[in-house]
């Protein structure tokens, strides 16, 4: 956990640099708040979350009678923690057999990598996982998923050129027959502005329900944290179309746009199950609001 905190701190340095810089002076005045507003916006916190944080912070400063900008920084960490707190949620498995997790996201967001990491995480928790390669048209996507399946030594259902919904149906049926704990379906990720993609994803969702009436139990969106406000746009678009149950926010290592999590918390608070700070299998961690706020402002 300590190592991970170091990674998170290192990863968010670029986002935090501009913000922490605001507190180097000796006075708490309008100038400080103006600088802070600009820094939060630069970090892709967005207008709404920035306004909310500034108001909340000013109230905290007044109540605490703080006189030192460093105290204001601590109070900002508190305000940010409170804002992000509702995003904290753990992925629960075991309630269904299998738990069916549908994973969506635009190409390049880190979807396949995150599925590899998630598989590892579940395998570590003694869960048997079956992967479904529902992105049937991109050969590279299927191959990459097969590599992750191999590394994690889990089964994969994959069929070139098949209907994505049919592959997912087969995977859920196979998992039921074999008593597997979790099915993770990797779906295609062309841009969400293309209506066709959303229709395909909705169809997969409908067909999963045919294989198991209670499924899918989770619809997770993988978003690239490094895309800042674009990530928020994607959360809204996918949530409108599919009703998301959670997010995996990737690439928080070395990003200057980590403030987007505050924007998500304010504008579309879909829970964040995991965050990613690297390309390796173990670079996936549960989201902790306090840790995130402290890492950002350290
Ligand atoms: P997909 O198209 O959404 O399936 O994306 P991929 O899983 O293929 O990932 C795209 C690229 O992002 C790959 O080079 C991954 O190694 C990289 N990537 C994924 N997650 C992370 C992360 O948390 N941090 C970093 N630095 N890179 C990541």
From TrEMBL:
<comment type="similarity">
    <text>Belongs to the GTP-binding SRP family. FtsY subfamily.</text>
</comment>
<keyword id="KW-0472">Membrane</keyword>
<comment type="subunit">
    <text>Part of the signal recognition particle protein translocation system, which is composed of SRP and FtsY. SRP is a ribonucleoprotein composed of Ffh and a 4.5S RNA molecule.</text>
</comment>
<keyword id="KW-0342">GTP-binding</keyword>
<keyword id="KW-0378">Hydrolase</keyword>
<keyword id="KW-0547">Nucleotide-binding</keyword>
<comment type="function">
    <text>Involved in targeting and insertion of nascent membrane proteins into the cytoplasmic membrane. Acts as a receptor for the complex formed by the signal recognition particle (SRP) and the ribosome-nascent chain (RNC). Interaction with SRP-RNC leads to the transfer of the RNC complex to the Sec translocase for insertion into the membrane, the hydrolysis of GTP by both Ffh and FtsY, and the dissociation of the SRP-FtsY complex into the individual components.</text>
</comment>
<protein>
    <recommendedName>
        <fullName>Signal recognition particle receptor FtsY</fullName>
        <ecNumber>3.6.5.4</ecNumber>
    </recommendedName>
</protein>
<keyword id="KW-1003">Cell membrane</keyword>
<feature type="binding site">
    <location>
        <begin position="105"/>
        <end position="112"/>
    </location>
    <ligand>
        <name>GTP</name>
    </ligand>
</feature>
<feature type="domain" description="SRP54-type proteins GTP-binding">
    <location>
        <begin position="271"/>
        <end position="284"/>
    </location>
</feature>
<feature type="binding site">
    <location>
        <begin position="250"/>
        <end position="253"/>
    </location>
    <ligand>
        <name>GTP</name>
    </ligand>
</feature>
<keyword id="KW-0963">Cytoplasm</keyword>
<keyword id="KW-0675">Receptor</keyword>
<feature type="binding site">
    <location>
        <begin position="186"/>
        <end position="190"/>
    </location>
    <ligand>
        <name>GTP</name>
    </ligand>
</feature>
């Amino acid at each position: 956990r300590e190592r991970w905190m170091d990674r998170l701190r290192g990863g968010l340095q670029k986002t935090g640099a501009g913000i922490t810089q605001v507190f180097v002076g000796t006075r708490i005045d309008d100038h400080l708040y103006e600088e802070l507003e600009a820094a939060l916006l630069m970090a892709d916190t967005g207008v709404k979350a920035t306004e909310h944080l500034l108001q909340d912070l000013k109230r905290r400063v007044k109540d605490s009678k703080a006189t030192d900008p460093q105290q204001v920084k601590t109070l900002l960490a508190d305000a940010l923690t409170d804002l992000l707190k509702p995003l904290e949620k753990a992925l629960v498995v075991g309630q269904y057999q299998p738990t069916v997790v549908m994973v969506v996201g635009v190409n390049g967001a880190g979807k396949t990598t995150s599925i590899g990491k998630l598989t590892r995480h579940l395998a570590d928790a003694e869960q048997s996982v079956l992967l479904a390669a529902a992105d049937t048209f991109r050969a590279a996507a299927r191959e990459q998923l097969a590599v992750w399946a191999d590394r994690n030594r889990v089964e994969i259902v994959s069929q070139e050129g098949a209907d994505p919904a049919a592959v997912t149906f087969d995977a859920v049926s196979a998992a039921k027959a074999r008593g597997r704990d979790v099915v993770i379906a990797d779906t295609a990720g062309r841009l969400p502005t293309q209506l066709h993609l959303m229709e395909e994803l909705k169809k997969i969702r409908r067909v999963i329900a045919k294989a198991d009436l209670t499924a899918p139990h989770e619809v997770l969106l993988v978003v690239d944290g490094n895309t800042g406000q674009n990530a928020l746009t994607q959360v809204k678009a996918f949530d409108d179309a599919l009703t998301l149950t959670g997010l995996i926010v990737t690439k928080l290592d070395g990003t200057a746009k980590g403030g987007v999590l505050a924007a998500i918390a304010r504008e579309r608070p879909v829970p964040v199950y995991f965050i990613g700070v690297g390309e390796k299998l173990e670079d996936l961690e549960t989201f902790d609001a306090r840790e995130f706020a402290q890492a950002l402002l350290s």
